[in-house]
Amino acid sequence: MFTRRRKSSSDASLLSPKRIRVNEASEDGTYPPCLPSIPCTFTPLPLTPGPQDDNLTDPEYLSYNTDNTFTKSDTNAPTNRSHGTDVPTNSTDNSSNEYSSVEDTIVPGALLLQTDSDATPLLTEEEYLSLRRAAQKKGTANFIKEYLFDKAMPITHLLYAFDAQPPQNLVNASDIQLIPILHKAVSKFLRHRKKLDHINTLEDVVRLLKESKNIMVLTGAGVSVSCGIPDFRSENGIYSRLSEFELDDPQDMFDINYFKERPKVFYSFAKKIYPSNFKPSPSHYFIKLLEDKQKLLRNYTQNIDTLEQSANINNILQCHGSFARATCVKCGYKVDGHMIKDDILNSRVPYCPRCPQNMSPNHNPALMKPDIVFFGEKLPDEFDHFFPLDREKVDLLIVMGSSLRVAPVSEIMGQIPHDVPQIVINKTPIGHMEFDVQLLGDCDTIVAELCRLCGWELKHEKLPNGSSNNCTDAKFEFLKPCWYLFEGAQVLPDEDACRYV
């Protein structure tokens, strides 16, 4: 199956990361730059996607039961056609992890940019490892800015440090032309964060929650499922409901180019995801509790349901926008989201009240589009502003209800300092990145248990008598070194978890 690809832009900016779809590369085979802050523009160059970008067959998940048994799940496994495929594997298996740690990677001399095999290595082994450690600490953009621009290190040396080599037709290219290759090489290296050896257990998670003062929380659709809002990729998720529209790819529904060509398709479906009378889940109020305890640095949410606002979370950044505002795709005129509410609920295409309308076949109409970030659109400016600041402060990362398959948000894990602990709370394992502890199962159940263990009271009507204080010990199985299976967890048949069957 072919996916709709975004047209490459000759003036793509390192300051403008865009949301990209599962397995989406631009026409030249490159991914758009993510999380950048380098003051320059460039023309994308041909790069070959790495091994993480391969298409894989959707696996069949098993659901974990608290009596230590597994049953076949009716829930389809998340699609694996991902930018960094999300095929859950044993997260401690580094056999296929090209960059599992600085020390385990190849040393200088194994790859030379010079064609002369007897040439002197560009870097000593210590310089090679030092540059990699610096990238793990600083992130892609800060690393390139410091070493390429501030310290004026030759770009060929930096490429060498990350085992990157320009194509033959670019061997004599300028530094500016080679920046996209360096950016991709560093970002690819950083995706392979090494698990921290000293963070392994539920007790470690509880200790981190108590001690941390700047917790970054990244949330996805999984925190809103218990509110009645469908996720995207499960059996009853949003993508499974799109068959009536006969799309080549369900993601076309949220593709900006497809929207401009066939807006009626999106507006025929939009009312099904429009925020209505949904109420926040215990997971939302867990984040609010962190904020009340002055521990929340910021909640980066991929959701568009605005339930964070309903839970009165203040430090929130909506990475993928929301229905709160709408914008004309032609002139940029903005209106309050309520202005197009009736159109959405009645499956009508709203048009810009300021632009003259020309409905001829060869004319692009002035459509009003909700300010949700479609595939191919840049993320809100707030993302560019706050993330570089937050990455310098964060002392704990918690990923909740997300399988991390949409860039550039999925790049956050590699871009914060690698010595910052990272915890997952999700139904399914995340295997394409190494997290320190994965708490697998129903998000609401897990956060209630964490609050109970921390001695915090989480209040919500769905909890026993409205409080986590009345919750009994949640049943789970511990899989060394860092997986916990709570009720609702879903794992693959060939994962270590299945030794309990």
From TrEMBL:
Active site: 320 (proton acceptor)
Keyword terms: Metal-binding, NAD, Nucleus, Repressor, Transcription, Transcription regulation, Transferase, Zinc
Listed GO MF terms: histone H4K16 deacetylase activity, NAD-dependent; metal ion binding; NAD+ binding
InterPro entries linked: DHS-like_NAD/FAD-binding_dom, NAD-dep_histone_deAcase_SIR2_N, NAD-dep_sirtuin_deacylases, Sirtuin, Sirtuin_cat_small_dom_sf, Ssirtuin_cat_dom
Domain Deacetylase sirtuin-type: 195-457
CDD domains: SIRT1 (cd01408)
Binding residue positions for Zn(2+): 328, 331, 352, 355
Biased composition (Polar residues): 63-100
First-listed, main subcellular location of the protein, grouped into a coarse class: nucleus
Signal sequence segment: none
Residue ranges, annotated region (Disordered): 1-33, 45-100
Cofactor(s) for this UniProt protein: Zn(2+)
Protein location: Nucleus
Name of a matching Pfam family: SIR2
GO cellular component terms attached to this protein's record: nucleus
Family: Belongs to the sirtuin family. Class I subfamily.
Protein name: 1624_t:CDS:1
